[in-house]
Structure formats: C-alpha cells, structure tokens
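Researcher: We're reviewing a set of sequences before deciding which ones to prioritize for further study. For each one, I'd like a predicted 3D structure that I can look through quickly. This is Ribonuclease PH. If possible, include the structure in token form so it fits the rest of the review sheet.
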Amino acid sequence: MRPSKRAPDELRKVSLERAVARYAEGSCLVKFGDTHVLCTASLEERGPPWLRGTGRGWVTAEYSMLPRATLERTRREVTSGRPSGRTHEIQRLIGRSLRAVVDLSAIGERQIVIDCDVLQADGGTRTAAITGAWVALHDCLAWMKARSMVQGEALKDHVAAVSCGIFAGTPVLDLDYAEDSAAETDANFVITGSGGLVEVQGTAEGKPFSVEELMTLVELARAGTAKLVDLQKMAVM
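Model: Here's the predicted structure for Ribonuclease PH, in token form for your review sheet.
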C-alpha cells in the first residue's frame, strides 16, 4: 500500500490554473498534490548573443524554491552568490524539454524565459514545473501570435513530465516525498504528446534495477504523461 493510498498507476490530484500572474505574457499555477509551482513565461525582444543574425529565437528556464517550500527552511541561493548544482540541472532540464517542442525559427530573434518557482514541495517539483511550464509557454506564444509576432505554428507538440519509481518492491507512478525519499529506484520521464521521449533520468538508490523493471516504468510514465497532456489540452481550450 502506498502512503497516499493511491493505486500504483494513479497520479496525484493535478490542476493547471492559467493567467495567475498579471504582468507575464503567460503563466500557470500547477499543482501535483501538495507540490505547487508557479510558472511564468516572459518575452524578451532580444535573443542570446550567440544567435544574433541567425533568425532563430530561444527558450530558456530558471528554477528556484521558496525558503519555506519545504518542511524546514532552506537558505535562499542568492545569499550564497550562485545557484546550486541541483538548480542548474533542473533549469537546464526544463529548458531542453520545452525547446524540444518549439520551432525556434518561428519566434524570430527573441527569447522566452520560463521562471518556475516552487511554492510548496512534496516530491516531483521538476516534473510539475515542466508540465506547468508548457501551459505558460503556450499562452506566451498565443499572446505573440495575436500581435503577429509569430510566423506559422511555433508550438509543435505538448510536453509533460512525471516521476516513476520502485517503492516497496512495486513500480509506482508520480512519487510524493514519502515515496521518493524511500524508493529503491527513482526516475523522471519527459515525454511529448505524440509519445516521444525527450529525457529519461533513472537512478537505483540501492539495489540495481533490471531492464524489465525499466520498461515497466516507461509504460507507467507514458500512461501518466498521456493523462497530463489531456489536462493540458483541457486547460488551454
């Protein structure tokens, strides 16, 4: 039995609330159970210097966690002078995930910055951030399209992410903190609406996992992200 009493293939309660930040071109408050992340998309008229003259734009991401998003207060990274390695890893993952479904030439030499701020953490903050960031990005691109700033269809597909793992010997979907902290195997999957794998991160926390177990986790993740994509579609209708 999972601590949350969910079935092995059951997601936490997920919600995607749009237009929650007044000034951002796109925004979404995403909730995976007790994990809450505010995602905003901001348009910048200039792209990165290395893309100057190419006609292509860029989508990038920044990630942070509020000090009391966790059970005990964590120190703001700004006070240490630089982001942690974990923060760098997560924000690069979010950026890669979104760029996988964007036609960067369609947005011109502009940059869209996605800010993902964790308000409350209970496991799966990076997967929630990616899922909510897609909604914020969608609305930013819609804002641009309404002003004739986008050529053609810039957004090629949906993208969502979910965690899977082996907890108490059982493959399970969408781990909360109680499971994540005790899982034998922990993995994150980023998958497009058409079923393509963007990224797979998997780690054995103790006993190595088998190829068969990995494939079971892949199938759990594919079913889970399909449900998340359906929620994205309903959110942006």
